[in-house]
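User: Please fill in residues for this 375-position structure.
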C-alpha cells in the first residue's frame, strides 16, 4: 500500500530532514516503509540477533527519547560481523532516500562448469528533491528449485560446502553477481522470499518457472506472487485490441487446481492465491489505462476459472464448511473465506449456464448465516 505514495509527487524519506507540521509524519511511508526497514534489520542479523539487539536497545535507552540512529546502532552493536554492522552507514540510506528501488534479476546456467550465475541490479527513480540515489543495502532471501520443484543445496563460489537450501544475499552495489556451484541443470530462482525487502522485483521468469514456483515453492509469499504474476501476464497479453480473453492454458489451470486441492495447505492462503489481482493493480502495469477493457478481461478470466474448476470449487465449498460453533480465530476465518470464494465462483458459473441451483444455495446460506462474514 505504500508503493503508490513512494512513486508519486508526495514521495518522501522515512525520516525527513525537516518538516513544516508534525501531522505530516502520519503517512504510509513513515509507518509502513519504516516497519519494513526494521524487518530488513531482522533479516540481516537473524531472529536471535534481532532479539539481542532489542535487549541492548532497551538496556541503553529505556525511558529516553531516542532516534532511528539509536535503534539501528543498538541492533548493529549487538551483532558484530553481520552485514548490518559492517554496512550500517549504507543501510541507513533507507531512512534518508525516498522512492522504491527496482530490483532486476537475471540468471545464466553453465552446464560445463555446473554453475548458475545470478546477476542482481538495482535502480531507484528520481523523487522530489532527490534526482539521484545511492545504492541501497537490499537483503534478498532466496532459494533455487529444480524443474520439478525440489529445493537445491546452495554453495557459492569460494565456499567449501553448501549451507542449506535458503540464504540471504546482500546487494549493496548497483549490480552484483553471485555464482552458485554444483548446479546440474538450469534452476528456478525463488527470490525475495517473505518479501525480504520493499522493492519492485523484475525476476525475468517465464511462465514455466512461475508455474513451478506456484506449485512447489516452500515460501508462501513467492507462491502467491507467482500466481498473481501469471494472472497479470495473461491479462496484459490480451489487452491490445478488442478480442475476448483467449482460453486459459491447461498448465495454468492445473497449477491453480493443485493449490486448491493440496492437503494440509492453509485455507486462508488458498483463498489468497486463488483471488485474482485487482483491476487497479493491473492498471498500474499499463502505460495506457483502459478501465473498461481491464474490467471486461478480468471478469472473463474469473468466469473461465469458475468454469474450468467447477468440480474443484464444489469440493472446496463442501470441504471447508465450519461445523463447530463460531470462533473468531484464524482457522475458521480461513475456512469461511475459501468456502465463500468457492461459492461465488460456483454462482458465477451457474448464472452463465442458466442453472438456479447454486444461486439458490447462496441465498439459503445468506438466510442461515450466524455472522456477517457469511452474509
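Assistant: Residues filled in for all 375 positions:
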Amino acid at each position: 500500500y505504500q508503493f503508490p505514495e513512494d512513486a508519486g509527487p508526495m514521495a518522501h524519506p522515512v525520516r525527513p530532514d525537516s518538516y513544516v507540521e508534525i501531522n505530516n509524519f502520519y503517512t504510509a511511508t513513515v509507518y509502513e516503509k519504516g516497519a519494513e526497514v526494521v524487518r530488513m534489520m531482522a533479516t540481516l542479523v537473524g531472529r536471535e540477533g534481532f532479539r539481542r539487539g532489542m535487549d541492548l536497545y532497551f538496556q541503553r535507552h529505556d525511558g529516553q527519547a531516542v532516534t532511528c540512529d539509536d535503534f539501528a546502532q543498538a541492533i548493529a552493536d549487538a551483532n558484530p560481523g553481520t552485514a548490518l554492522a559492517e554496512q550500517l552507514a549504507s543501510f541507513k540510506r533507507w531512512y534518508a532516500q525516498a522512492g522504491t528501488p527496482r530490483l532486476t534479476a537475471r540468471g545464466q546456467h553453465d552446464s560445463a562448469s555446473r554453475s548458475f550465475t545470478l546477476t542482481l541490479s538495482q535502480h531507484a527513480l528520481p523523487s522530489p528533491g532527490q534526482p539521484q540515489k545511492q545504492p541501497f543495502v537490499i537483503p534478498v532471501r532466496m532459494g533455487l528449485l529444480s524443474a520439478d520443484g525440489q529445493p537445491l543445496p546452495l554453495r557459492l563460489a569460494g565456499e567449501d560446502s553448501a549451507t542449506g537450501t535458503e540464504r540471504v544475499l546482500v546487494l549493496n552495489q548497483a549490480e552484483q553477481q553471485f555464482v552458485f556451484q554444483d548446479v546440474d541443470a538450469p534452476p528456478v530462482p525463488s527470490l525475495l522470499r517473505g518479501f525480504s525487502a520493499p522493492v519492485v522485483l523484475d525476476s525475468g521468469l517465464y511462465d514455466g518457472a512461475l508455474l513451478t514456483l506456484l506449485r512447489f515453492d516452500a515460501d508462501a509469499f513467492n507462491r502467491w506472487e507467482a500466481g498473481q504474476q501469471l494472472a497479470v501476464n495473461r491479462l496484459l497479453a490480451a489487452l491490445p485490441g478488442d478480442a475476448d480473453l483467449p482460453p486459459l492454458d491447461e498448465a495454468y489451470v492445473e497449477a491453480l487446481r493443485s493449490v486448491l486441492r493440496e492437503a494440509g495447505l492453509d485455507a486462508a492462503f488458498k483463498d489468497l492465491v486463488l483471488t485474482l489481482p485487482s483491476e487497479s493493480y493491473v492498471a498500474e502495469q499499463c502505460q495506457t489505462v483502459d478501465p473498461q477493457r481491464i474490467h471486461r478481461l478480468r471478469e472473463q478470466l474469473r468466469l473461465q476459472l469458475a468454469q474450468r474448476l467447477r468440480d474443484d470449487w464444489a469440493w472446496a465449498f463442501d470441504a471447508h464448511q465450519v461445523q463447530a460453533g463460531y470462533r473468531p480465530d484464524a482457522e475458521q476465518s480461513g475456512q469461511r473465506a475459501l468456502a465463500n470464494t468457492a461459492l461465488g465462483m460456483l454462482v458465477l458459473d451457474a448464472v452463465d449456464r442458466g442453472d438456479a441451483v447454486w444461486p439458490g444455495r447462496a441465498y439459503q446460506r445468506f438466510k442461515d448465516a450466524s455472522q456477517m462474514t457469511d452474509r
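For context: The mean pLDDT is 95.
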